[in-house]
Amino acid sequence: MIRFLFKGLIRDRHRSLFPIIIVAVGVFLTTFLYSWMNGVLNDMTDANAKFDTGHMKVMTIAYNKLSNQLPNDLALTGVDRLIDTLKMTFPNYDWTARIKFGGLLDTPDENGETKSQAPAAGFALDLFGKNSKEAARLNLSKAIVKGRIPEKPGEILISDEFAKRMDVGVNSKVTLLSTSSSGAMAVQNFIISGTVEFGITAMDRGAIIADLGDIQYALDMQNSAGEILGYSKDMFYNSKTADKMAAEFNNIYTKPDDKYSPVMLSLEDQNGLRDYLHYVDGVIFFIIGVFLIAMSAVLLNAGLMSGIRRYGEVGIRLALGESKNQIYKSLLNESILIGIAGSIIGTGLGLALAYFMQEHGIDMSGQFQNSTLMINNMIRARITFTSYYIGFIPGLLATLLGTSLSGIQIFKRQTASLFKELES
Amino acid sequence: MDDNKNIILVEELVKDYSMGSSYFRALNDISFTAKKGEFTGLVGPSGSGKTTLLNILGALDNPTQGDAIVLGKSVKSLTHKDAARLRNNSIGFIFQTYNLLPVYSVFENVEFPLLLLKKGKEEREEAVMKALSWVGLTSKAKSRPNQLSGGESQRVAVARAMVKNPVIVLADEPTANLDAENSHNIIRTMLKLNEELKTTFIFATHDEKVISYLHRKIVLNDGKIVNDINLN
To answer: Model confidence at A191, in pLDDT bands (50, 70, 90)?
Structure first.
């Protein structure tokens, strides 16, 4: 009997193909839309975390207040010890020191005279540390356009666009002119080991990347750093954990009357990200919610129409001796099959497109030319566990509910009324 | 079953349809009996109550008052499930518009009632081919309903009604959509089955061609029996 009904379902396109297409389209759009919006949001937080905020950041109170001025005279001291303390207190996080600095990058001609000079935004990272994950975290090997990652002190990376503007290349000698932590002039020569492109306009415009030790030496910041960044070992930011950690640390180490005491901030507590992320979360929730409701209404209606269209068939089956219960159950079973088939196809297609957009993305560099936001030029989708069921569940349930409601009419109507549908 | 025993007993049957605050009386104090093997017609003009009576005899509708006892079962007291079981086991239906399931082949349409009876595959195949041979359509077993003429479709409907060897076949205007030749063919086929298998046929009809074959004519008008004539 089940085989017989299944055969009918397959042969009747109005009962199978078209409802499956409707369900699949709805589920496809939901799955892809969710993954896409999730990707955009995640890209932004990820780029911010990797290049700027970390998942957690420790600074002095004074540095935090003036952080947009890169006040390295207010930097943390005794960094090695502080990092040891952080590692012991929060072992699920990787802790690393960074220095952000500004300065002029000067390139000499063959006579040693200035050939070109431009302001640079510098990032000093632990490139040579035995257990350092900084190069991997910033994906430096993938970001290299020419040359290689620095292998020894005195080597730096500069952004490819910056190198072209300065007319320098791999192995070129450059001089950094900056200010030491004590306010004196700092001058340090470097050799460019490679050029990089991160695909983030704010970084690619004029960044130099140097080893932490080199910059500590150049800026007279031995065992000091502007910031200590913490990254969760699974690289997933958890808002609640972050808030708890910050509260715990600040409760012990932050002394409001000592502006040099350390303070810990979560990712969301920096650059106004908390409000922004809540806003974006709300927008995503709203858009997906509205879309889900609309999709469910369409699928519900499709289920209803499909059920109503079949009153005649129900009449025949009743006359041939099927009970109302049997017919209702078979209608529900059909809708489950259609819901599952449509949801699998829709989820599969949605995931496939989301995967494609996760791997390739859309290049928005034209729109981000003047952007100072830490956001990737390539906007990508992101597939998460939720992507697998966000469309599937409403796809299945809405179809089932639509059929259930239309099927209830079978019970409400007199058998003879259903039977009369045959003649209409 | 004893041939002289009444297989249908209708007693003071009344059927009202609600029309807002008032009601319409479709059947008014109907009483009659039918024995196994009858070839009987419910005859009368449109609106006389033929189809309503047929629906009650087929346990598709309930009487307002009185009762119809079909094969010993009181239609009034049947549950949905019991009514379905009665139709499934003992009653075949033939409709004016054939009502074949369009996505299934002729063979599958005729097979459907046997699937409901949970018959085995071999038994089903044998019974379906036998029913198709009764109506002369074995060569069309694999055809779809849309490939058949009106006469052929109605013959398939007869085969579907007969395949489970029902005790009673209820036919509602079975020739209304057929030309004269096909009408005669269909009625002759049913008459042959009635004689060979002793199946009771009850028609709702106002077609003179059908009436000319009937053994008994129950004439209805305005929901009442106005005549009950034995034509044998």
So the answer is: very high
